[in-house]
Amino acid sequence: MQVVEANGARIPLVGLGSWELRGRACARIAEQALRLGYRHIDTAEMYDNEREVGEGLRASGINRNEVFITTKIWPSHFAPRELERAAKNSLVRLRLTDVDLLLLHWPNPEIPLSETIGALCRVKQAGLARHIGVSNFTVALIEEVVRVATEPLVCNQIEMHPFLDQSKVIAACRAHHMAIVAHTPIADGRAKNDTTLARIGNAHRKTAAQICLRWLVQQGIAAIPRSSRIERLEENITIFDFQLSTDEMAEIAKLARRGGRLVDYAYSGTPKWD
Hints:
TIM Barrel; eight-stranded parallel beta sheet; 17% strand; globular
């Protein structure tokens, strides 16, 4: 599996997103994904499936150190003591001694960012997380968090697909050597209805969703598509056997439009998006 490197982390370019996967189905999908060659699984405290992700990892028989596990702390637990407690609880549910990447799930303006980041850095220093980062952070918040962090931040996980222009956030992250991890990378299924993606897909004998994912990884952006179907798991990882041309990459980038954002939930007020 190809990786993107950032501040010491090696993040596999394709992972399994687990939002809305629950129970035995979640454990089964995680297990099957790993058997198919995935080495990156994304979960979160809020998803209520960390236990099942851990079960899937153990059932797969894949060595723990070969798999990059990400989880995220919900903003209601951003007060320092609560964040440290939440991180430990996530590890209990996963039945792991550490995670590869621990993220702040959404900004929370009700708690000073310096306090939250201080706690996140201490969690890393205590060995509970190998790497730390953020999710759904804007340019202004990236600048603030980099200024106050005492440990390297390795990524910003954001909504990223061809229909949303995230160039400003990407530039800010890259200026600080942070990776981008794309959630909602096939636009919640909307990619399959786009004629441009379908046409380019036909030229490569690939689906529109595969073109979406290839467009991301070809920019060095990791993608974590969610799927509850085994055949889709295999499709989503079969994107390293072809390359999009410069013209195709540019044509796909032109699909971005105002109103392209699909995930606009925030814990306490919507951020001022870039």
